[in-house]
Amino acid sequence: MENSTYIALSRMDAQQRAMSVVAANMSNASTVGYKRENVLFSDFLSHQHGSKQAEGADTESYTQDRATYRDFQQGDMQSTGNPLDLALGGEGYFQVRTANGVRLTRAGRFEEQQDGAIVDENGNALLDRDGQPIELPQTDHRITISADGVISTETGEQGQIGIVTAQDNNTLQAEGSRLLRSDQPTTAVERPNIVQGMVEGSNVQMMTEVTQMMEIQRNFDFMAQFVDAEATRQKNAIDKIVQVSA
């Protein structure tokens, strides 16, 4: 198999990777707090050595999958009327305690358990500014949350939600579609902007994703046709060599 086929296959592999990322974005278009992903490709240059290289053939360019990164642009605010649905305007993340440790999230759909603990949809406890789970008196029912995260009920203030920011969003590791793991220390946001009764929707734009998917499919089909044509060319060349040798 000639190097031209290997180059085409490297680009087909990249297109498959891009397609899987677009498909994941589309499947999470309605996931609260989801941030769409992008892929980053680059050229891997292979320098050919030898005195008989054709002009322009001294370097071969393969496609290299470098990284997947997230678009942290804010999603649209969606009104729910639920007092424990919270959206963040601007920077920052909620903190929740999972079985694997503290995780960050923009998915602000919370609920109160029977013991008064505030948890997310997976039962992970929402944390306050001191990194402790927030619990409300079981007899209280009127919940108000200020923009800076202070939770109050009919018996007074019950705590303050901790909102933090990461040193570098690009270092955050996704765990599922809602949670992010930070391997570096986080910093408290001094003036968060929490909106009660709303959630932040996904920042996926379906029209953009569909257009991108069509472009990826066209590129993949083109490369597949090239590989097929190259295989036919090589087969025909071998058949002629065999005929001459016979």
TrEMBL record:
It is found in: Bacterial flagellum basal body. Residues 195-236 form the Flagellar basal-body/hook protein C-terminal domain. Residues 6-35 form the Flagellar basal body rod protein N-terminal domain. The keyword ATP-binding does not apply. Pfam families: Flg_bb_rod (PF00460), Flg_bbr_C (PF06429), LlgE_F_G_D1 (PF22692). InterPro entries: Flag_bb_rod_N, Flagellar_basal_body_rod_CS, Flagellar_FlgE/F/G, Flg_bb/hook_C_dom, FlgE/F/G-like, FlgF, LlgE_F_G-like_D1. The keyword Transcription regulation does not apply. Residues 87-152 form the Flagellar hook protein FlgE/F/G-like D1 domain. GO terms for cellular component: bacterial-type flagellum basal body, rod. Its main location: other. Keywords: Bacterial flagellum, Cell projection, Cilium, Flagellum. One of its GO terms (biological process) is bacterial-type flagellum-dependent swarming motility. Belongs to the flagella basal body rod proteins family. The basal body constitutes a major portion of the flagellar organelle and consists of five rings (E,L,P,S, and M) mounted on a central rod. The rod consists of about 26 subunits of FlgG in the distal portion, and FlgB, FlgC and FlgF are thought to build up the proximal portion of the rod with about 6 subunits each. PANTHER family: FLAGELLAR BASAL-BODY ROD PROTEIN FLGG (PTHR30435:SF19), FLAGELLAR PROTEIN (PTHR30435). This is Flagellar basal-body rod protein FlgF. It comes from Gluconobacter roseus NBRC 3990.
